[in-house]
Design a protein that fits this description.
Elements lengths: L15 H8 L7 H10 L7 H4 L9 H13 L34
């Protein structure tokens, strides 16, 4: 994760989101290089203690959001699990380096 902005004043200072905003890097002048470095050095365990607290209940956001939206619209929910699609692999013009998550080698 790289933040473009961090509205720290909009969240409770002792909340998990405030902790995440405090440790997440901000977008730099060279975003392509920064994104490549963040992807290469990504360690999900480095923020797991924070991110596990940012949703309640973790792993169920799709279901909770769907039920909430249907309830607010006054509609009956569709009885199905949300369909999760894989992130497509795309080529970003001007990138270099070996293939990796989200990257397609140049042909």
């Amino acid at each position: 994760m790289i933040l473009v902005s961090a509205p720290a004043d909009a969240v409770a200072p002792d909340s998990p989101i405030a902790r995440l905003l405090a440790v997440a890097p901000r977008l730099a002048e060279d975003p392509v290089r920064q994104i490549e470095e963040v992807i290469a050095g990504h360690d999900p365990l480095s923020t797991a203690a924070i991110t596990s607290c940012t949703t309640s209940p973790p792993g169920s956001a799709g279901t909770v959001l769907s039920e909430t939206i249907y309830r607010h619209l006054g509609l009956e929910p569709v009885p199905a699990d949300p369909r999760v699609l894989p992130v497509p692999e795309i080529e970003v013009p001007g990138t270099t380096g070996p293939p990796g998550p989200g990257r397609v080698p140049r042909r």
